[in-house]
Amino acid sequence: MAEENAKSPSLSPREPSEPVSEPVSVQVESPQASVAAGSSIEAATRSELISRARSFLSSPQIQSQDIFAKRRFLVDKGLNETEIELLLRELPPQLPRVPPRTYPQPPPSGLLTLLIGFAKIFTWIAGGSATLLFLYHRFLLPRILRTAESRKSLKIHQVSLLKKLNASLKSLKETQTQCYALLPRPDPHKEPSVFAGCHSLLDVLTEAETHKLEINELPHLTLLRCAWEDFRKLPDCADSNPRTEELFQVLESRIPWLVSAEGVPFERNLWEVLSTTSVFNGLTSQDSPGEVSAPVRWAYVPPKPAIPTPFLSSLESLSSTVTTYQPQSTSSPYQYTLQAMSEFTGYISSNLYTPYRPPPLPGTTAPSMGEPADELKKEIRALKGLVLNRRSFMPTIPRVSIPSSQVP
Fold first, then answer.
1. Where does it reside (predicted)?
2. What is the pLDDT of residues 283-297, one digit of tens each?
3. Coil, strand or helix: which one is 300?
4. CA 3: distance to chain centroid?
5. Which of 29-43, 80-94, 206-220, 313-327 bottoms out in mean pLDDT, i.e. has the lowest?
6. Cα end-to-end span (Å), the chain
7. C-alpha angle with apex 343: 339 to 349, nearest 5 degrees?
């Protein structure tokens, strides 16, 4: 505002540039005349001040200033609010102040750079993909194809080998079936030789204690046969066959373990053997009703001894011959020489690692440790003589005489 005050015209009632009025002769007047004269002077001063304020507000330098600064300046110069409002209303409406055009220049567009970058990226991707495809088709693909072909050929070879193996196994099975037809079949109802001579359950239990066997390890067929024989040893039962209940009563009376919870499964196995084996035949009891078709009494039929087949007889004879065969010892003429050489080699190896002993000093008696050397010399002489004797007494080898005419 100091600059505005310096530039704006002064609104004081009297400026230095104004001419000073000449002195007026003072005349004595009445008080009413002096009051009227003072009011007229003040009115002239106010009108002059208002006109200066109007010219101040209408100047182009002041029009762009803030209205609050203008109001403050006019108040400082002595104008009241009413006069200031009238002066401000007289002013033409001002347009809004447009800021100076000092905006920064917009940066240049980066679209071209962006497009060039994208083009470079796509070029790199395309080039890398082409390089990878070239390397794949040039190096990797041939190896993969060779590996696949090798695997396929290996698989075909393995399948062919498996087919050959199956065919050979099938032929081997057929050959075995044809060869094994001559061999005797094992008897499923053959009793062990240990219990074959038992004819009662007491004998079976005695053999079981001798061989330290449990009840569940005893053969079922032996127990059933011995129980059948024990039943026939009872009075009035010599010629009768036992029923199933009677046979198992005899077993339970001799072996109370069958009644326990652990013996029930074993007793069930006994029943299965009794009903399936061929040495026990089920007979229908005569005192049972005719409509009952189930066997009630069991008869024991001893199995017939198997007749040995010619093949089995030949095998038995071959086995007996092999067991009784004793090879004849044949003496070789070089056996003594071989034995002497082996003993000589052992003697040399035993004396090879003996500690070294210096020879005796002159004038001293030779120690007794020199005897092994003498013995070694004797052994060498004996061996040399033996070799010479063998050579002189060896049979002469006949040689073919070649005529001199055929000698080149």
1. Peroxisome membrane
2. 776 555 544 455 578
3. strand
4. 93
5. 29-43
6. 152
7. 145
Rounded distance between C-alpha atoms, residue 272 and residue 275, angstroms: 5
Give the 3-state secondary structure of residue 345.
helix
Q: What's the alpha-carbon Rg for the chain, to the nearest Å?
A: 74
Alpha carbon 239 to chain centroid, angstroms: 74
How far is Cα 11 from Cα 394, in angstroms, rounded to an integer? 171
HSE, side-chain direction, 13 A CA sphere, residue 390: 13
Residue 107 neighbours by CB distance under 10 Å: 6
Amino acid at 303: P
Q: What is the mean pLDDT of residues 16-20?
A: 36
User: What are the residue ranges spanned by the domains of the chain?
Assistant: 2-14+34-90, 127-183, 201-300
Quick one: tokens of 235? 């009075």
Q: Can you give the length of the chain in residues?
A: 408
pLDDT confidence bin for 166, thresholds 50/70/90: very high
**Alpha-helix residue ranges (DSSP H) falling in 219-370:** 220-232, 244-254, 263-276, 310-324, 335-352
CA-to-CA separations, 218 to 162, 204, 230, 257, 389, in angstroms, rounded: 45, 8, 17, 13, 73
| Dist. CA 84–CA 302, nearest whole Å | 156
Q: What is the pLDDT of residues 248-283, one digit of tens each?
A: 888 888 888 888 888 888 888 888 888 888 888 877
Q: Which residue do the tokens 């050979």 mark? A: 168
Q: Of 35 and 151, which is predicted with more confidence?
A: 151
Could you tell me the two tokens for 303? Answer: 């199995």
3.50.50.60, 1.10.10.10, 3.60.15.10, 3.30.830.10: CATH of 201-300: 1.10.10.10
Q: Taking a C-beta distance cutoff of 8 angstroms, is the pair 227, 300 a contact?
A: no
Phi, psi of 282 (to 5 degrees): -85, 125
